[in-house]
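Standup notes
- DV: blocked on the single-chain target, sequence here:
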Amino acid sequence: MPDKIKLMQITHDLAIGGLQQVVVNICRTIDRQQFDISVLCLRKRGEFAPEVESLGVKVFCLPQKENATDYFSFLIVARILREQNVKVIHTHNTQPFFDGAMAGLISGVKTIVHTDHVRDLHR
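- DV (later): unblocked, structure below
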């Protein structure tokens, strides 16, 4: 049997919300014979983190300073991607896309999937 594909979902957090529920559902339903899935939260863990971990999915969280923007957080993300040998990134919304894409490029991740959960309010 070939090695599982290491996939990391990158999101702001696993707080209560629709985007986060999508992340939880992916963790719950993805084919574990094919994928070794993990989640990286850029801001905080959130209420869904224990549920995701109970599924056997590792949850990473970047250390954040209160009310501060870290414009170089993609470097920490890149280190995590390299350490975890991630092959596929799935980002959710804008900041995770930028941090994930930049980190993926410098850490050699070949496949980046992005989902934009923002609704166009004018339609």
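- Follow-up: The CA atoms of residues 78 and 104 lie 6 Å apart.
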